[in-house]
Design a protein that fits this description.
- The structure is a single chain.
- Helices cover 8% and strands 51% of the residues.
- By secondary structure, it is mainly β.
- The strands form 2 sheets. It has a 14-stranded antiparallel beta barrel.
- The longest helix is centred in the N-terminal third of the chain and has 20 residues.
Length: 345
């Protein structure tokens, strides 16, 4: 590695530490999210489309939350992306489908987004790149009023579900266009050292959200700043620190933590590791993760321990989440093989 690349490596590592410290302040809680934000890359930042070693990638995420508080919130996300698009050099692409159902009204949100990312090499090292992405999509929201109760249905102290709620329901569904953009920087330093970071903006179209067709009720844009790294601790141990800061309207969410990876096997296409991590989401939850990388598969389980003011209702129980990632055509680094000349034996 030449002097220029060593200097860039040091600047990248120092920048990651400074950013981690700068973002370590108290912020307010955020709404629906994935604990394993790092295992749902197309939700985190569309510029992460195709950011992996291989040809194609399939990702599934499932989250269930607030079983002890109300009707559980269920979120499922499925995505597929490609590291290369045939005949389009430097272009990566992906598709993201989200399905979320929340609360007694069974508020259902269905999203379908398409991602296109342009990757630009910024040095002599082909893997040191900046990616820029755009992610248009459609969202459909529906609400079910049948299980909701209203003040007008109470007669004295008795609730009458057959009474007219006298609510001006004007619609139970809406569909709108949305637009997200992002950028991501990836810098491999050596075989087991890398740093990266990105910035994303979601809901740039500020779509209307009212079931009453009120134009002034809009979905606030959301911004995300995130960073990640891979750093060796010992012969078989790596640490993977990650942070994510999101803001939407007056709400903020900050997640920080790290995973530890223990390598079991690493021989050509046989690559197997164990993963364990701990994370903190400001004033809301402590999250524990455990998983395994088994050749082309990565499966991770996480559990949220609620530590917010909702403890009397939640009884410390937050969310259960499972993610699975499968990579087709995973590329293995080529190792240089040496032969000893017989004349010197």
């Amino acid at each position: 590695m030449n002097l220029k690349n060593k200097t860039i490596s040091r600047i990248s590592a120092i920048g990651f530490v400074i950013l981690s410290q700068f973002l370590s302040f108290s912020v307010f809680a955020q709404d629906i999210h994935f604990t394993q934000f790092f295992n749902s890359p197309l939700n985190l930042n569309p510029a992460l489309s195709g950011n992996f070693e291989g040809d194609y990638r399939l990702i599934g995420d499932s989250r269930s939350q607030w079983h002890t508080v109300t009707r559980p919130y269920q979120t499922v996300s499925i995505s597929a992306d490609a590291a290369k698009i045939p005949k389009l050099d430097g272009i990566r692409g992906g598709i993201l489908i989200n399905q979320d159902r929340a609360g007694d009204s069974r508020l259902n949100t269905f999203q379908c987004n398409l991602s296109a990312a342009y990757v630009l090499s910024i040095s002599d090292e082909p893997d040191q790149v900046v990616a820029f992405s755009v992610q248009p999509g459609l969202t459909n929201k529906r609400i079910d009023y049948s299980d909701l109760s209203f003040d007008n249905q109470y007669v004295g102290y008795r609730y009458d579900p057959t009474a007219n709620p006298n609510e001006p329901f004007s619609g139970s569904g809406l569909t709108y266009f949305n637009l997200n953009v992002g950028a991501y920087y990836n810098h491999p330093i050596s075989e087991r050292k890398r740093v990266g970071g990105g910035l994303a903006f979601h809901n740039l179209s500020s779509p209307r959200q009212s079931f009453y067709h009120e134009a002034d009720i809009r979905l606030d844009p959301r911004w995300t700043v995130h960073a990640d790294a891979n750093w060796p601790l010992a012969d078989r141990f790596d640490i993977l620190p990650r942070i994510s800061l999101m803001g939407q309207g007056t709400f903020r969410s900050f997640v920080s933590g790290l995973e530890v990876k223990y390598e079991l096997l690493n021989f050509e296409t046989i690559q197997r590791s164990l993963l364990a991590g701990v994370w903190y989401r400001n004033t809301d939850a402590i999250m524990l993760t455990a998983g395994m990388m088994y050749d082309d598969w990565k499966v991770t389980f996480s559990y949220d321990v609620n530590v917010s003011s909702l403890i009397p209702a939640s009884r410390f129980r937050g969310a259960v989440e499972l993610s699975a990632i499968y990579i087709f055509g995973r590329r293995v680094p080529q190792k240089t093989r040496h032969r000893v000349c017989p004349d010197y034996m």
